[in-house]
Amino acid sequence: MLTSVLVANRGEIARRVFATSRRMGLSTVAVFSDADADSPHVREADAAVRLPGSAPSETYLRGELLIDAAHTSGADAIHPGYGFLSENADFAKAVLDAGLTWIGPPVKAIELMGSKVESKKLMSEAGVPVLAELDAAAVTESDLPVLIKASAGGGGRGMRVVRELAELPGQLQAARREAQSAFGDPTVFCERYLETGRHIEVQVMADRHGTVWAVGERECSIQRRHQKVVEEAPSPLVERTAGMRERLFEAAGLAARAIGYEGAGTVEFLADEQGDFYFLEMNTRLQVEHPVTECTTGLDLVRLQLQVAQGVALPAGPPAPRGHSIEVRLYAEDPAHDWQPQSGTVHRFEIPGTLTEFGLLTEPGVRLDSGIVGGSFVGVHYDPMLAKVISYSDTRAEAARLLASALARAKVHGLATNRDLLVRVLRHPAFLSGDTDTAFFTTHGLDVLSRPLASPESVELSAVAAALADAAGNRRDAKVNAGLPSGWRNLPGEAQLKTFGTGPGATGPDADIEIRYRFTRAGLRVDGHDELSFVSATPELVVLDVPSGTGTVRRHFEVARYSALTCVDSPLGPVTLTRRPRFTDPSAQVAAGSLLAPMPGTVIRVAAQVGDHLTAGQPILWLEAMKMEHTVTAPSAGVLTTLDVTVGQSVDMGVVLAVVDETAAGTAEQTTGPKDGERT
Questions:
Q1: The whole model's pTM is what?
Q2: First vs last Cα of the chain: how many Å apart?
Q3: Contact 573, 458 (CB under 8 A)
C-alpha cells in the first residue's frame, strides 16, 4: 500500500495531485527549483526537496535527482504529472528499479508511444486510422502545407507549419532545437497539415486485469501555436455526428489494448466535419484538460491512477456521462501583441463564484485548478499557464455563460493575460454554435478576439475612477490638512491633472489618458464628462452616476494600486493603467532606434554584428523566455550601431538590446514561435 507520493513536477499539476492524495490519506512530497522556492505547491506539501538551479535541464528534467528526493523524503511512489519526464520511459524504468511505485503506464507502453513515428505504424497495424508520415527530404510543393512535429513530445514544442518549400530546411532546424531542449530528443517528422481540423481526444483508463475504459471524449480544437486554449466535454462535433462516438471509442480501445496499457491515458485524433478522424498520438499520462472529463463523469482520475498503480481493479464500465464542462487555460501572455509572454508578480488573483479548487463539481458552477495565488511571482523559466478555470452545467450554453462571467469578473492584477480573449471566445456566436476548428483564431480574427473587454469609453471612465481613488489615497495619507476634501481650493484654480498610460501590460493600444477634474461647490467636474455625477470615493472604491440613455446608472469601480500600476475592476470590464510621473526622468530615456527587450529572457542566438547594414525585418537576435523563442528584428533599414548583449546573457524587460541607425526610429517587431512549455 502507498503511504507517500512525490510529484515530479511543479505548479498546478503538483497541487492537483496533492489534493487527491490528501483526500486518500496519503502524505505528499514536493520538489522545487530555486525559481519555485516560494511557489504554492511547495508550501502545501508535507515535505519538499530542493533541486538546485532554475532551468528545467538542471532540475525537473533530472531523473536521478527526483529519485534521490523520493528516497530522502521517504516517498514510496512518484507521480510525474504532465510535461517534463512524464512520458520518459527511461525515467519510469529508473523509478521502478529504485523500488518505487510508478504512477503511470508500463514502461513498454511509454516506449511504444514515445515515438510518434513508430506509434503511427503500430496504430495502423492495430486498425486505427492514421495520417501518413511524409519524408522531410521528399516533400514537394504538392504536399504543402506540412506540419513538422517533435517525435518525442507535444504541447506545441518542436512544431512548425510550413507553407513555402524554401522555408522547410530552416524550420526543420528550429523544430529540432526546440525538441532537443524540451525532450532531449531532436527527432522530428512531417505530415500533411489540415488547416481546419477538429482536435478530438478520448480519455482512456485501464487496469492490470484487462479492463479498458473509454471514459469520454473531449474537444480541444481552439488552439494557439498548436497548444490548446479551450477544451470541453463532450465534443459538439461528436454530439451531432451519428455513430462517431462509438467509432472513436472503438479506436481508442484498440490503441490502448495494442500496447497493454494501464492507468490514465489519452488517444488524440484529428477529425474533419464529416466525422472522419485520424490518429495523432497517444499521451501516456494525465492530460491538462482532464477536469472536464471529471466534471462530466464524477470520476477523480488522479484517484483512479493511484488505485490502478496499487493493483486495484476497475469496475466493468465507467459511469454514464452527465452535463457539459468547459475548461480554459489562463496564460500570462498578451495575445494582442503576438502572444508575448509576461513575467512579474501577480498581485491579486481571485476567480469569483469558485465552488471548488482541484475538486469535483456536482452542481452548476466553477472549479479552479491554479498554480499561483495572489503574490506569486511568474518567472521566465517555465510554461506561462497560470491556472485552469473550469465550468460545469447541465447544458453547454450555460457552462459557457458561467465561465465567461467568472473570467470577466476575475481580479487578475499585475500581468497581462489572455483573459479578455477567453471571454470573447466563450461569448462568440461561432463557439456557441459549436463551430470550433483549429483555425478559429484565423477565421474570426485574433485582433478582434483579443480586444479588451472594456470599451474605450469604459477605459476612460475607469481612468476617472483611478484618478479619484488616487486623490482619496493622497488625502488619507496626507501629513497635514487630511480632513480637507480632495482637490479643495479656497479660490477657483486650475483643474487637477492625472495621466495614465495604456498599452502592453495595461489595457488597449499604447496611449495616454489625461484626466482633468476639479471639485466645486456644485460637485465634481471632469473635463469631457460634464454629465458625470460624483457619489463617493475611497482609495479602494469609487462610485459614480454615469449617463445612460435618458437617465443615469450608478457604477461601482474597485481600484487597486501597486506602485505605478492601477487596476480597476467593474462590470464595464477590467482595466489596467500605468500612472505616468509628472516629470520625466532623463535617465529613463533611450536613444532613437533602440531595440528593447520585450520581457526578461536569455539571448540564445545573435545573427548580426555592429556595422552591419540591415533590411527591414531582418533578424538581429533571439531571446528565450517562458519556454518560447522570440525573434528581435530590425524595424526598418539601417545600420546596427550598438549590440549590447551576447549569447547566454540574461536580460531584464526594457533593457536596450541593440540600436539601429534608421530613418524611422521605433521598437523592433517581436515574432514569437513555440518553444517548450510543459503543457499539451
A1: 0.86
A2: 31
A3: yes
